[in-house]
Fold this protein.
Amino acid sequence: MNFSDNLSTKEMKPRLCRHPMNVDGRCMKPFCPLANSKYATLIEKQGKVFLCLKTPERVHTPAKWWEYIPLPANNRTKAFEIITSHLQWWDKRSLYRVKKRYIYIMLMIRRIRKLRTMALFVLLFIFRTTLFIQFL
């Protein structure tokens, strides 16, 4: 393996961030919630979506860094209105990233719900066949 090839492959890989509040997933300063005093992201807790805002006024109280605003899970247009009203004076890139993350989280919630129902049907089918085999 050539040394220059080794360097180019390492540079081609994107560095990913493991911080749960990261809006984009990339490990770069504009996307890092720890490096920015003004930051917005979305999180999902038990099927509910929250808009999380971090402002410079809250920096002196680390326990209250984040303001959690609940978003409707079934109405995308109403959720986008809430997001745009809270982020109307922020830069357009962060607004775009938050909306993009909302769409991704809602698709993830739909997939989770679908997989839960599919797993339930499979488990019932296996349970019935084992009962049928045990009675024979």
Q: What stands out?
A: Confidence is low (pLDDT under 50) at residues 1-9. The chain has one domain: 3-135.
